[in-house]
UniProtKB/TrEMBL annotation:
Transmembrane segments: none annotated. PANTHER family: ANAEROBIC SULFATASE-MATURATING ENZYME HOMOLOG ASLB-RELATED, RADICAL SAM DOMAIN PROTEIN. It comes from the Bacteria. This is Quinohemoprotein amine dehydrogenase maturation protein. Residues 98-334 form the Radical SAM core domain. PROSITE patterns: RADICAL_SAM. Keywords: Iron, Iron-sulfur, Metal-binding, S-adenosyl-L-methionine. Its cofactor is [4Fe-4S] cluster.
Length: 477
């Protein structure tokens, strides 16, 4: 080989318990480096460009020529070393010519019977009467989904609000209609919803159970924390009602694991206590945390030391997760599940999520949005359930989202996992859905490094954990 250059943005090293792990950044693949590869990589990292003469001079006294050649070839194959005369490779933009939907989100009601102080929904109306989607619109949305998912064996329908259970008659109609249609087409369907739980009854729970509708409950922890933000329209805390409803739900519903979704805000950041209460006291199967950093009322947003503290607490809980995983136990920490799944699968994202590709959200009038979080915003829509998807307009957005080079994402070591971050988070905080979530960048890089360490430790001590706990979870998503 001639002169080779080191491509630093394609390689990231993480040392775990004396093992040198190389993450191939473009594919999030992990490799354990032997002494030869470590030495070769360290040399190129130090000098930037090297040729065979320098390699022999620096390392020939320590390693056999064939071992050096093999290591070099591996690093060239991974595009970590490249011909020094070769220009940097341009980013490949994947063209979007069709939208093969797998998921439709129905915003069944803008209304909610609660008045949570941090709610981001721009179309929200309280109390629960709201503006409800009608069945004709929902039926057209289902038909659009089935048409776009012609090549898929399974589709997903998500009910969202406001509070989706405040339009329970429509949910029943949609489930009955969709079950009939997928049976005709030889497909399967998965239904799910996120609820504040206050409107649950035994009859509703039994119906959800019979139709295997996945349920996630929005709940922020023990009474003192939950009641800070999750209140009635009259300002009363809702913990007692929600906790009672959750206990009833978990006693009757067994179709699928039930998770809790926690919003962390200023003053509600005790990750450990919240997880322990929701998982161990109330009995949720898993608990996931979403730090609020771009809500419409700035006083609730986490920033600076508070945000860093949340990530440190999540790592503390993550260490508990690893200890339990090594014992073969699952403590139900959704954020760790997702992180380890991304690493285990070798995530290679061109865009941050399925919004606009596998997923679209439908508002009460049938207009199509990138996702449920954009419903009610001033961002563009992309067609209507009656007239179809505006594919050129949607394609322009998704293709534009793939190149965030102007923001520095091209050389970020977690670009294949993050891909610039949530469109709505960026839009809400910076007014541009393509602008990266800069306030998260360093924290997310550290979180991914923590995930690599955790993955390697679990893999070394109890590799069956992934087969028994992560793979079944992915199969039900």
């Amino acid at each position: 080989m001639g002169s080779l250059a080191f491509i630093p943005h394609n390689a990231h090293r993480v040392d775990v318990d004396g093992r040198a792990m190389l993450m191939h950044v473009p594919t999030t693949s992990l490799f354990e480096m032997d002494e030869v590869s470590q030495s070769v990589l360290d040399l190129f990292r130090r000098v930037g460009v090297a040729d065979s003469d320098l390699l022999r001079a620096e390392l020939g006294h320590r390693f056999a020529p064939e071992d050096l050649a093999q290591s070099l070839q591996g690093l060239v194959t991974l595009d970590i070393l490249r011909d020094a005369g070769q220009p940097d490779r341009p980013m490949t933009i994947q063209k979007v010519e069709e939208v093969p939907l797998s998921t439709i989100i129905l915003n069944v009601n803008t209304g909610c019977n609660l008045a949570c102080t941090y709610c981001y929904k721009e179309d929200l109306t309280t109390p629960a009467k709201g503006e409800r989607m009608d069945f004709a619109t929902a039926r057209s949305a289902i038909e659009l989904l089935l048409a776009q998912a012609a090549g898929r064996d399974k589709v997903n329908v998500v009910f969202f609000g406001g509070e989706p259970l405040s339009n329970m008659p429509l949910i029943r109609q949609v489930v009955d209609y969709t079950e009939g249609r997928v049976a005709e087409l030889g497909k399967a369907v998965d239904f799910s919803l996120t609820t504040n739980a206050t409107l649950l009854t035994e009859e509703i729970v039994d119906w959800l159970n019979a139709h295997r509708v996945g349920v996630t409950v929005s709940m922020d922890g023990p009474r003192a924390l939950h009641d800070q933000n999750r209140r009635t329209v009259g300002g009363r805390g809702t913990y007692d009602v929600v906790a009672a409803k959750v206990r009833m739900l978990l006693s009757r519903y067994n179709a699928r694991p039930v998770g809790a979704r926690v919003t962390l805000t200023a003053g509600v950041t005790d990750v450990i206590a919240i997880h322990d209460h929701l998982k161990n006291d109330l009995g949720f199967a898993e608990v996931g945390f979403g730090p609020a950093t771009s809500g419409p009322i700035a006083v609730f947003n986490l920033k600076g030391d508070m945000l860093r503290g949340v990530f440190e607490d999540m790592k503390t809980l993550g260490r508990r997760y690893v200890e339990a995983a090594i014992r073969g136990e699952n403590i139900g920490f959704s954020n760790m599940h997702q992180l380890l799944s991304d690493i285990a699968q070798g995530m290679k994202k061109a865009v941050p999520c399925g919004a606009g590709l596998g997923l679209l959200a439908v508002d009460k009038g049938g207009d199509l949005h990138l996702c449920h979080r954009f419903v009610g915003s001033d961002q563009p829509t992309y067609g209507n359930v009656d007239t179809g998807i505006d594919v050129p307009k949607l394609a322009a957005f998704v293709e534009g989202a793939q190149d965030r080079s102007n923001f520095g994402c091209k050389t970020c070591r977690i670009r294949s996992i993050c891909a610039g971050g949530c469109y709505h988070e960026s839009y809400a905080r910076q007014g541009d859905p393509f602008a990266p979530v800069y306030h998260y960048c360093d924290l997310l890089r550290d979180w991914v490094d923590f995930g690599i360490e955790s993955y390697v430790r679990i893999l070394a001590a109890n590799p069956s954990f992934f087969r028994h706990h992560l793979e079944p979870r992915r199969a039900t998503q």
